[in-house]
Amino acid sequence: VSPQSSDYVLPQQQQSLLIRFVEDFKARFAYVDGAQATIEKVHNVLKKCQDAIGAPPPSASSSSGDNNNNNAAEGGAAASGGVLQRKYAYVYPIPIPVPSEKSNNNNNDAASALTSAAPSPADTSSSSSSTPDGAGEVPSPDWAQALVKELAKKEAALRDALGKQTVALVVDWSFAHSLTDEEQKKIASPIAYGIASKLISGDEGLVGLAEKNKIVKQALVANVSKVRLAYDSSNGVKSTVGDANYEITLDTSTGLLTILINISSAASGASLGPIEPKLDAVLQLTLKKAMSNVDLNKSSIENTLAFYVGKVIPVIFDLSFLEHPSLGQNVPQATRAAMVDKLVAVTKKWLNAEKGFGEFSKNGGVLDIVASRVLRIRVSANPENTIASKIGDAHYDIRYANEGELIFRINVSDLDKAINSACLEAKFENALNLTIFKVVEASRAKITGLENTYTKKIAGKTILLEIDWSWASNESFTRLPVSEQSAIANKLVGLFISLISAENDSLITLMEKNADMRGLVQRVLIRYDPLNKIDDKTPRTPADWRATIVEGELILEGNMSAYNAQKWEGLAAKVTPQLESELLYWKMGTKVSEIQKQLSSAVSSPYTLSFDRDFLRSQAFLALPRKDKEDYVQSIFATHLDGFVKTIKSMSEHPIGKTGLSSQVSSVSMVMRSDVRAPACKLEEKNLTVRLPARKPVLAEVLPVISVQWALGVLVPIEKSIGQDKIQETVQKCNDATGCKLVVNLDWSFVEKPAFLANSPETIRDTIHRLSRDLVRRILLDGVVDVCAHPIGKKTLQEKLAHVDITAFNPEKGTERTSRVAIKGDRLVVSEIHVANLDAAIKSRYKERIEFEYDLIVAIAKDNATAKHNEVVKRMSEICGKSIPIAVDFAFTSNSSFKSMDPAEQADIITGIYATLPENVLVKADGTSLAADLVHEVAKTAFLNRVEKIEFCLELTPGKAANDGDIIIDASSKTLRFIFNMNEVVSVVHLNNWKERLADKLDVLPIVALEETKDKRDAIEYEVQRALASKTKVTLDTTFVTSADFVKRHPTEKVRMVKDSNTTLLASLLHGDSGLTGPLSLSEFPSVVKSITDRVKEIRIVVAPARAPLAHRGDVLEVTVSLEDVKKGGKVDGVHTTLEELLKLRPIKEDAAIERANAVLANVSKQLSEAVGGKQIPVEIDWNSVRNAASFKSNTAGYVAFIKNLSSFPEINVVAGTGAWGGASIVTVCKRNPAVMQKLVDSVDKIVITFEAKNNVDVHIGKSRSLNPSGVSVKLNGKVLEFTENLDSPLSCGVGRCVHNLFAQSEFLAAEQKVVNDIADDMRQQEENRRAREMERAHDHNKRAQEQYAHDQERYQRAMQDYHKELNEACRNCDGKRDVKCNYCAGKGTTTNNNNVSACQVCKGPGRHTCTYCDGSGKAHKSVNQPNPPSALRLESIPSFGSMPDYRSQI
């Protein structure tokens, strides 16, 4: 209302509305303070608007109901052509709709529209003296002129009566041309005085009617511009309205009203009937009267309505339906007028009745809605009678247009019907969407009560509960039936109450369980999404609604389509993760405040700390379980926050670090980003930005101190200071340990070298650390101190060493040398140490190098090894029982080849030849030395007889001795001599084959090996004797050890061959089923064992160049194997088969096996007898049919098992088989079929099973070959039931069915058919299930494939995002600028040395140099691998199946 812009204008339509608003405002709020000032502001606005369009300012007292004036103003505005644009609009509780131009044009009332529809007559000033168009000339005699004057008076009277000076009265004199003068004179008087007076100026003429009747006057003024009197000389006028002698017509295009009279009536002076009925027919006066009543009633209706709603709402009667073609042209005027009157009456019922629109509007807050949303009311009728409302009465409807127009429509044919007030209210509510308003009003008390309930149950916590009803204005809701709208709105209230206070899964129950979360929600808002676009991804909860927490506000949103739900399930599942995150959000804020205080205290300077906590509200974080969320945040606390404090405190412990923190930093910002791989920091304008990886941290991800030191530029000064302190500590330890007074000088100039400063901070720190700590410690503590540990070395260094200089550290160049050690006077100089070989320099053996420089290697090494050498001599004397001298030839130490070796190698050779080798070769206690041989008396005797002295020598000529050394026994001097190549001493030390080599050299190797395997060999012999129950000896012929093939082999292989022949070979031949000890071996049957032991007393194993057949000589069984078998490990085939053949043991075994089988058959016979009532029916096998069969005779290995297997079949066939149809035994069939049992008892005395050697039994029973047993012939031979089966494929089960078929065939066939049917049905069902599974599997596979493909696509998209991030990620060191500030000159571009200013050596002047992290590319990564797109989606075809197989025929 108070615009700031000077060019503020309103469209004319809005001005009219504003004028009405002013009147309404004055009427309703005049008593309010400041109201008048507001009205004056509105007038000022209107004046500006009128000035802008060139129209006079509107009056504040303009009638609010003067629609015609408003429309005229609008028309003027439109005609003026001004550009009118709305910039501001008055805001009501509900925004006022802005009428469109279309609605502006339709704002006229219907009556005005109808009257103005006729074209305005052309203005004319013709008088009665004028010559009318198409009329004859006025007669010229005097009487005629008098007549003209008289008619002029009538014309003047007509003009005065109509108030329209342009109307003309004319006479068509064309009829007079055919008359004589007398006839003209005779007729002139009736025309001028009779007819003209009666029809024109008389009380019942046009003048009188116009003066008496306003409607007639208005009709004449609006439609008539000229009145013409005409006469029909043929007297052909026959009017159907009123007097038949004249008629009236109106030319609407010209406004010419013609009165045509029969000339006979005019000449006779007969009195003409009244003109009013004819005017009524021509000008539709009855209809216009009804329309006039519309205008009269319109004001009354508006005023009455204003009483109810407190505002004048224009009511527009749209009577255009009267001209609609569907009414037709023949509808009488009176009928049309009645329609109008009825429409007015209906309108009063609609708007002004006791239970009409006005009455409804004043209820509660409805008044505000009506006042704000309804700008006008339009009433009309539907001439096509197509209105079929779905709300209440179908014959009329009410709707609301977007332009603020409330439209009432009714079918013309139903104007007489009654108006049901309940239906009217329902239609009204639907039109203005008052359904929601009612629900809102009804819900207020419920929501207030719900708030009180929450406060009461949640420990006094207050909460604001609200429903957002804005969704109710959406078209998808408003177009629904009122009943459904009400149901949806009420359901939302119910859902809200349930979500807040239900016994299970509500906000109250959630807060009761989680006291620590109660303060996180202060306001709850619920609303629908009318477009149903909500698709919540919270796992295991409905997707059609969601819950969101934003700054203490819980927003509950659900698809409107889900309103039928009894409850929105899953509140806790949707809200709890967010509450957990919000709680952690608050806790982290508290933690950050605590950390800020700790930081300020640590650096003794006020710090501000911020941490970007938005990740706590991300979907990825919300999806985590609560424990994982808490662990995540606790990890951040421990790592990024507490760890950062530790980092700052650690840095503050050094004065240089603390000074840098307090002077250069005032604030810290911590952010977590997905493009960050490791914690890093950067200093900008006293703000230290710490960038952290967006993932759960581990303790190892604490921001390193070095990162902060580097960012602040204090890394090198701090590390140099620490390094100097470490050097002094190391020097002091060295001096204390050695008694020396050394001084260490480290050249620190390298820290200023450009190439050194271009390295990474870690490299710079590590280099300083390792040089000042590791290298110095290595030189002093592992070098000088270790040298001084020997008296010789200590004395030498105390006398000759005073300084240790570490110099020439040059990281710009490299060399293959680890370092250079040299003596310069009293100085030990360590130089030529480079970055490329710093590790090697540190690992170098400075003890030996120092000893070498001072010529102490041989003396110290020999002295150090003397104790161990003496211990070896002592141990050898103890083992041998006498003194055995051990000598070492040191002549090699004077050789130039030895002297040219590295000092460490020299020391190792001396230690090896003097101590380590004598120990390993002679007395080492791990069983690999000579001592292990000497525990055997035979070896000890041989050694003492042949050796009295031991020597260790080095061969200076490379390769002259064997790689593993030469062992020589000098018989003349009885010396055991070991000779090694000098360059292989260190490797020979690690050999572990001295025991066998020395045993072989003493010629006792086989004896020692046999003694060491004696226990295993005796155990093998014991197992053989136990199996044979006799004292049968097992012996090994060892003469093979003298063969040339054996002698030429290495001692290690010889030992293995002897041991294998004495253990593995014996076990392979004699143990297990293939030998003599297994359960299926030759010791299985006592009769076989007796046959063996009677003939064999000794088993002798002979190893010969080649294998030989098994031999039985006297009572000795001789088994000969080849030497090749022994070389392969001694695993050979056992003696079972060959011994059985040699001693002809098969018949004995067959008899024993059959005897065992007959015992089984006897048991079967017993069980059969018990099953059939006690009758003894023996079951036998014809063993001759088996033993005489060629296939049985050819079975040399498994015939015993075959006999045993044959004896098991009768048990299954006769007694035990109880399985499916084809597996039934005789006993099973008898129990199920008493008739079969009786026949068996009566007909059978014995059962005999015979096996057909030719395997030609091919007998089938019943109809099904797949169910019934086959390959067995069953017949009754007298009292013997004979079964004949194929020997190679005996029937394993099912003989019972053969007996069943033999004794009760018809019953057998019937039972068989039933089983076939059952199996076929089961197979069909299984096949159906299989097909269903296959289809389901294919569907599941395709579903999984699609899900996997979607997942792969999503992962690929994420990978591509990461790829682009990495590809474009700026270098963390230079921030993508490609160069960095020069640390050497601190960015100044110059350096000062002894007051001499020169250009910086590193940056050459600019103060910046190329970034070494990215080599000047500005990128964080030098190369990034682009992810591969996922494989194409592969779907499996859904299987299709043919018709079901005929399972019965298959069976």
Q: What does this molecule look like?
A:
There is one protein chain. The protein contains 55 helices and 36 strands. Helix 1 (12-29) packs antiparallel against helix 2 (35-53). The two termini are 98 Å apart. Helix content is 49%, strand content 14%.
Shape estimate:
flat
Number of helices: 55
Helical amount = 40-55%
Work out the strand percent.
5-15%
Structural class: alpha/beta
Oligomer: single chain
Cα(first) to Cα(last) distance is 98 Å
| Global Rg | 63 Å
> Based on DSSP secondary structure assignment, what is the total number of beta strands?
36
Largest sheet: 4 strands, mixed
Low-confidence stretches: 1-8, 53-136
- For the largest sheet, list the strands in their spatial order: 1-2-4-3
Give the tags.
1451 residues, alpha/beta, four-stranded mixed β-sheet, 36 strands, 49% helix, disordered N terminus
Task: Give the gist of this structure.
The chain is α/β, with parallel strands linked by helices and 1451 residues long.
